[in-house]
Amino acid sequence: MKKEKQVIPIFFATDDKYIPFLAVALQSLIENSSDTNNYVIKILYTNIEENNMNSIPVVTKNILIINVLCFFGSVVAAKYGIDLNDLLGLHFFLASDFNPAQLITYMFMHAGFQHIFFNMFAVWMFGRTLEQVWGPKRFLFYYILCGIGAGLVQEGVQYIQYVTELVNYEGVNTGVAVIPMAEYLNLMTTVGASGAVYAILLAFGMLFPNSQMFVFPIPFPIKAKYFVMGYAALEIYLGFGSSADGIAHFAHLGGMIFGFILIMYWRKKNNNGQFYY
Predict the structure, then answer these.
(1) What DSSP state is assigned to residue 120?
(2) Are the C-beta atoms of residues 175 and 231 closer than 8 Å to each other?
(3) pLDDT digits over 160-215, tens only?
(4) For 49, what's the count of Cα atoms within 13 Å in the CB-facing half-sphere?
(5) Alpha-carbon distance 267 to 175, whole Å?
(6) What is the Cα–Cα distance from 177 to 163, expressed in whole angstroms?
(7) Coil, helix or strand at residue 8
(8) 265: which of 37, 120, 179, 204 is 20 to 30 A away, CA to CA?
(9) Helix axes of 136-161 and 249-269: crossing angle, nearest 10 degrees
(10) pLDDT at residue 277 above 50?
């Protein structure tokens, strides 16, 4: 005899102000639902704007705006002979051009249109969901801290490269010319929001591990947790690979590492709860 599914009624009452939290609750319900139950969901609402769910939260919106303004500012400045990426990018800490403030400013600079486009697309795609879950203050703290953490990891990797490959030389052959070591160290510069973006991807995968995602060119949906693990594995492979592609793979991993530590700390502090407000 086939067992009848248990009917579980669920009732929500909300208004325009609490729509983001309702979305989180529904997403959590979807993630943790059972095939053995039937869920009857009813929502009582007042004053809900039609486009509320598609709106961009304030921190996510300002991250997008600041990055775009910085990018176009760097393009305009270049026409006047000013390299903002050199001024605001993260230099190796033993280089003469290093400034501690670059640990923050570097994540708002980008090397080109493709670089900023994919980073900001990821911020828009996943960052707004995290901000709705965590709230603006916690999301901003997470974004900035993981960006700084990514920069610190990149600095550590560059230091290892320096002491193992460069410390005993007075100059470096770049393939075009031999330049003094002091000048070469100033060329070791990191720009981009990728470290913070990879932390956002990690957080989405940890908070919504079973969400289905379509990732080009994969012809079928994959779960967010597998997407994140795949990206991390790829970055490890490329980071330890011999190809000099000019991409700071260890900064990407650094953002994920700091993000993982922070989320696990919050989970422990909140008795292993999945969502944080």
Answers:
(1) H
(2) no
(3) 989 998 888 888 887 788 889 989 999 999 999 999 999 999 999 999 888 887 77
(4) 9
(5) 50
(6) 22
(7) strand
(8) 120
(9) 140
(10) no
Instruction: Report helix, strand or coil for 172.
Output: strand
Dig out the tokens for 159 from the structure: 């230091």
What lies within 8 Å, CB to CB, of 15 at 6+ separation is 45, 46, 47, 48
- 274 and 28 in contact (C-beta within 8 Å)? yes
| Pick from 220, 207, 209: nearest CA to 264 | 207
Query: What's the pTM?
Result: 0.79
Determine phi and psi for 213, rounding to 5 degrees: -130, 140
Which tokens go with 262? Answer: 């922070």
Every domain of the chain and the residues it spans: 6-46, 57-269
* Residue type at position 135: G
pLDDT, tens digit, for every residue of 77-106?
Answer: 999 999 999 999 999 999 999 999 999 999
Give the Å distances, CA to CA, from 257 to 37, 69, 230: 37, 29, 15
Helix (H) or strand (E) holding 178: strand 178-180
Residue 18 has a CB neighbour count (10 Å cut-off) of 14
Give CATH superfamily name and number for 57-269: Rhomboid-like (1.20.1540.10)
Q: Which candidate, 33, 39, 41, 38, places its Cα nearest to that of 5? A: 38
